[in-house]
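FIELD: query
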Amino acid sequence: MIRQPPLITPDVLIIGGGPAGLTAAAQLAGRHHGHVLVVDREHTAGGIPRHSDHTGYGLRDLHRVMSGPAYARRLVQQAINAGADIRTSTMVTGWADDHTLDVTSPDGRYQIRPRATVLATGARERPRTARRIPGDRPHGTYTTGQLQNLVHLHHQPVGERAVIVGGELVSWSAAVTLREAGCIPVLMISQYPKAESYAAFNAAGRSVLRVPIATRSRVTRVIGKGRCQAIEIEHLDTGRRRTVECDTVVFTGDWIPDHELARHAGITLDSGTLGPLTDTALRTSRHGVFAAGNVLHPVDTADVAALDGKHVARQVINHLNGKRQSAEGIRLLADAPFRWIAPQMLRPQDPAPARGRLLLWTDELVRFPKVTVRQDGRIVARRPLAWPAAPGRVFRIPSNMADGVSFTGGPVHVGLS
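FIELD: result
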């Protein structure tokens, strides 16, 4: 006779103990007074900020600036103080049925059947292999997360000369970590005409960290037997190639959601973000399953992901109190140069999205964007915005630009004039 694993039945299960999951847990445990359970596969909750040992965290959600580890500890403590149950070193391995999850932990195997589930599993950077960069396979190649884990958590040395592939905010985070480890970043590489990060960060990086930036360039080969010795890069416009000596290469950005649980459940994924398709209440296609943070749209800052967690908590409470979604809804679609839009579904009577913003990702720099919302050939709204649409970071537009859409009409297209 096969013995069934033990079953626990919390009111809410939150999968992922990063900023989105912990903030949702603190809000839910503080307001709902039911059993709110957070599970995280790492041995300590806190997510990426836990090993991102530099300042800049907490501005939008906690209204203060702190280091990544301090920020992670603060979010964990807030969730615990509110009454949330946090279980670490706990891996959700799959779905037993539509609402029951299989779990493996130091306490053994068991199952969890909550009344509501929040997917807050975050995103990860694509490593070199996923980027299909040819060459040798030497030691000394990392993603930012691997680098920061190695340096800040395990206090291990890296090399002496590093090349950073990518020009996003996280790329400068990698540069700071390399400097702290005694490794000199000798070059940053971006495929775009300018590095994707904000101009202030690029200027500060050049002047303080003294990192030159090779724009409109890509890595064509990694060279080295045993240990990385150099990389070959190509200028995208001229085709000219050159070799840069280095013993360390850090591949930054190029994010993909940690969407395995959603995919295995058969939850509808958006083809642009590769994360779960959601409406403005952050409901997924499976009843009772919500999603929040960077699993939805790679990638945003930790404090914005935390505010996503605050937003989803209100929607989960509505669900637990018996509020049901409207059966009707219309799709939001991103037109070029935008790659994706999030959330992707509008329903009547649903709340505005988190912070009243629709999020988009552009593949081209547009310094003075004029955003246009269209439906069935009709212009619903057209508005110039004062901030640029730039690659490598989320472009936000006011969600009220879609207030004039018809819920009996066709898909809504968001693009630029």
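FIELD: remark
The first helix runs from residue 19 to 32.
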